[in-house]
Amino acid sequence: MTVFTRKQTEVARSPWRGPRVLRRAEFWITGAAILLIGYLVAAPLIYLIWQAFTTRAGLTISNFIRAFQAPGTGEMITNSVIFAVGQAIMATLIGTSLAYFCVRTNAPMKPLLYAASLVPLIIPGILFTISWIFLLSKDIGVINQLLESAGLGFLTLNIFSLPGMILVDGLHLSPIVFLLMFAAFRATDPSLEESALMSGASLPTVFRRVTLPLVRPALMGAMLVMLVRGLESFETPALLGIPARKWVFTSQIYQALNTYPVRYDLAGVYSLTLLAITALGLFYVQWANRQSERYQTVTGKGFRPRPLDLGKWRWPVSIVFVLYFLIVVVAPLLILIWVSLLPFYMAPSFEALDVVSLENYGRVFNLRNVTRSLKNSLLLAVSSATFLMLFMSVVSYIVLKTRMPGRRLLDLLSAFPLAYPGLVLGVAFIFIYLRSPIPIYGTLWILFLVYITRYMPYGMRYASTSMSQISNELEESAKMSGARWSDTFRRIILPLVTPGLLAGWVYVMIVSVRELSSSILLYRSGTEVFSVIIWQLWNDGFTTVLAAVGTMMVFGLVIMVAIAYKLGAKVGVQVE
Amino acid sequence: MLAVTSLTKTFEGGKQFGRVMAVDGIDFTVKEGDFFTLLGPSGCGKTTTLRCIAGLERPRSGEITISDRTVYSSSKNVFVQPNERNIGMVFQSYAIWPHMNVFENVAFPLKVGGRKIPKEQIKQRVMQVLEVVELGHLADRYATKLSGGQQQRLALARALVIEPNLLLLDEPLSNLDAKLRESLRFELKRLQREKGITTIYVTHDQAEALALSNVIGVMRTGHLLQIGTPREIYEEPHTQFVADFIGSTNFVQGTFQGQSSTPDTWVVETNHGPLHVCKTADLKVGDRCSVSIRPEHIQVLPDADDTRSANMWSGAIKTRLFVGEVMDYQIEVGEAEFRCRTPASLSIPTGRTVGLYLPPEHCAALVIDV
User: Fold this and answer.
1) Where are the domains of chain B?
2) Which of A50, A69, A67, A70 is nearest to A59 (CA)?
3) Would you say residue A9 has pLDDT above 50?
4) What is the DSSP track for A325-340?
5) Phi, psi of A541 (to 5 degrees)
6) Which residue from A198, A262, A276, A297 is spatially nearest to A232, judged by alpha carbons?
7) Alpha helix ranges (H) inside A297-367
8) Does position A197 have pLDDT exceeding 80, yes or no?
């Protein structure tokens, strides 16, 4: 049975929601939530606009004129576009084709792709980039050396270049496209393709005329998200672009804040421009999604995609899977572990094996900064995750289960931080708390605030997903069984939302521990977090110690992702 | 046992629709031990009525009394919370709590609401009711691991365990496949009869309603059109809508002419000539009306020359379908088309002209309300 229905975006609300006292409390809680979220979300925007449009002389656009007339600005914009577009195309091509072969064909070795889909969560951008420097830097890069000795020197790539930046970021982000397109291919009915085949179309024609148009909205969405991610990306442009003098928006903002005298005006203008672009892009994605979801074909019977038989192409395709896994997961991790075992950087060789030791791991803990940053990171991750999940479960309850005025505003506000690039949020927080009477500049509190602002949308998504799972009939049947409000809350609602909230909690922990682009602007001596330490070690040339720190970090993240996975968090591919 | 008096319920339909009357002043009573079915198309207000009885919706006005206890009254400003009404309810989605096993789901009603029942007794009562629905062997299984039919029986067990005064069933069979639905229909009937529990059943499936109920109330757009036994509803519908909704039927439009020469017979003038009917709704001479006759009541006479009397028309066989025990004919009479159902032994080729006899005792002149 196929029916066209308007997508149900709202859960029907129950007419009765506990005692009157609670309803009054609900009103005040809603107000407080709107104020707090409103402050966290709007203050950065207001301060950015204020900073960009004023000088000591008053309201003016001279900041913009100065910023865009500064030498190299044109080139910077061109670089940003080339970099963003280039890595988006690369990530989309790789991710989409892998997803297609993974969902729609019978190629073996698919689990490798599922594992690789977790990379963006497990290997932080900064470690991924550094690993690739070890692999592809001009003189010391392992792959370059291999190519050289094989007489293929003309193939070597200097990673400190625009193509290098595109390659590294494109590879790092391709698993995200894989996940998005995996879901899209899963959701389209294969019988649409089969009926095209039966009409006499050849396989390539079917792909071009039926498959691609069906997933086009998802594909455009994925591409746009990648563009935005490319513009926001900080680690790769900073580590690879700055040495090559290939500036983009983010590295330029960072530079403006790290020169003497500090150029707040430049940082403000560039940040606001970048924010405008990313916000527009994301709103467009949202809008397009809503358009395509409005009238949806809902089929009563589930369908199992019937895999296409690749015949003799099964193994070549799976070799591509293996290669991808090696390039995206194994190579970066192996080189990181290898370097962590050395007293100084050497390419892998039998001679080098003689000096391998675990010494770096011991040295890590003698560096006072490292232990302190580990403590800071854990403290921040636990506190922001705990606060966010508790807060967002209240907010999602208001949004989904009550008729409070303002609940829609609350829903919108909590999604807004998605538009802030991390670096831009960092800049805004500098502007706010350099002037604000709230004395948190240079403390862990400012990092806490930045984390809960950035990860509010994720917390909200986890909380509202688990909240919306409780259909009203589950509560109503409890009531019909004679349960009082307190019984229903304690025995039905709480047990049902807890797993989802826990999964969200671990997820926010993971992303907080990896956070770099906001922290890098807001830390002071004493409030360094783990990823900042890696950044410092890299800049100070302690590559081997850095590799040890990075290896431990990856190891810790693997454990956390595994826990999140166990708790049913929607990370990576759900294989049933 | 249950009395519903001038019940109304409105919903806010948003800016476009303003206020929507979901239930528009309905009255009915249900006797102790009855199986009462509210039947109607989707959106007719039957589920809303059920939810008002449950206390899950607050009506706009009216009165609801269960076992001589007023649970809702707009004039006396009474509203008893659903958890204090002692009603068992089975939801359309079953609403099985996914974090509990079968036993815990059924035990839940005995543990909440400040009830202090000793553990042993809870166990005994739960197992007893699980045996009744034949789920005893699955007590430890997680509720989400059950099949559709098992979930349905679990929901029933959970509703029955508190020994409620009243059992409410909201389309409990609609999520099951046809075979299972039929076998659970018998199961449900047996349980209801054994327990003697007063039951209100909501469905849009007329076959289900006819098979299960003692009394059926047919609803449309918030109104109760007719209440009666299944036989009454089927054989003596009051309006065209009821006749059409219950079973399949043929309609002939015409003008009501009043009493005929024979006693207890009325005449309706139609395009195909006068038609004598033995049943009539409340009609005045000159009213437009609609005569209903069921396909199985039309007599198909292969010998077209037979001119017996009035109510005898001739038509041409357009299509015929062999559906097992019977033959389904579509017969053209003038511009109109009749569905007739005859024993399978009667086989007439298409295109043949046949006589149609419409026995007056099966013809009913009805109010046009469609």
Assistant:
1) 2-235, 241-366
2) A50
3) no
4) HIIIIIHHHHHHHHHH
5) 85, 10
6) A276
7) 314-325, 331-340, 359-366
8) no
User: What pLDDT was estimated at residue A302?
Assistant: 45
Cβ pairs bridging A and B (under 8 Å): 78
How far does B130 lie from chain A, in Å, by closest CA?
16
B12 SS3 class: strand
Among A451, A461, A471, smallest CA distance to A503 is for A461
Please name the residues between 16 and 55 in chain B that touch chain A, using a CB distance below 8 Å.
54-55
Whether residue A298 is predicted with pLDDT greater than 90 in this model: the reply is no
B174 Cβ under 8 Å from any chain A Cβ:
no
B73 touching chain A per CB within 8 A: no
Q: Tell me whether residues A492 and B88 touch, CB distance under 8 A.
A: no
Question: To the nearest whole angstrom, how far is the Cα of B58 from the nearest Cα of chain A?
Answer: 8
Show pLDDT as tens, one digit a residue, over chain B (370 residues). Answer: 899 999 999 887 666 667 788 999 999 999 999 999 999 998 899 999 999 999 988 899 999 999 999 999 999 999 998 888 899 999 988 888 888 899 999 999 998 877 788 999 999 999 999 998 888 999 999 887 888 889 989 999 999 998 898 999 999 888 788 888 888 888 888 888 888 899 999 999 998 999 899 999 999 999 999 999 999 998 888 889 999 998 889 999 999 998 888 888 899 998 888 889 988 888 888 889 999 999 999 998 887 665 556 788 888 999 988 888 888 999 998 888 999 998 888 888 888 888 889 999 899 999 888 6
Contact A406, A34 (CB under 8 A): yes
- Name which of A477, A489, A494 to mutate to probe chain B: the one with the most chain B Cβ atoms within 10 A of its Cβ: A477
Q: In order of start, what are the domains of chain A with their CATH numbers?
A: 31-55+72-292+312-345+352-566 (1.10.3720.10)
Q: Do the Cβ atoms of A480 and B86 come within 8 Å?
A: no
pLDDT at A21 exceeding the cut of 70: no
Pick the CATH number of B2-235 from 3.90.870.10, 3.40.50.300, 3.30.9.10, 3.40.50.2000: 3.40.50.300
Q: Does domain B241-366 correspond to CATH entry 3.30.830.10?
A: no
Please give the torsion angle defined by the CA atoms of residues A196, A200, A203 and A206, in that order, rounded to the nearest 10 degrees. -30
With beta carbons under 8 A apart, name residues in chain A contacting B113: 481-484, 487
Phi first, then psi, for residue A15 (nearest 5°) are -75, -15
Pairing of strands B215-220, B223-228: antiparallel
Q: Which amino acid is at A168?
A: V
Copy the structure tokens of residue A148. 């050289």
- Measured in angstroms, the CA of A139 and the nearest CA of chain B are apart by 59
CB atoms within 10 A of CB A351: 7
Residue A340 main-chain phi, psi, to 5 deg = -65, -15
Q: How far apart are CA A474 and CA B95, in angstroms?
A: 5
Give the residue-averaged pLDDT of A311-317.
84
Contact yes or no for B88 and A487 at CB 8 A: no
Interface of B with A in 95-114 (CB under 8 A): 95, 97-99, 108-109, 112-114
B83 to A492: CB separation less than 8 angstroms, yes or no: no
Contact flag A482-B113 (C-beta cutoff 8 Å): yes
Q: Are A572 and A99 in contact (CB under 8 A)?
A: no
Q: Measured between CA atoms, how close is A303 to chain B, in angstroms?
A: 18
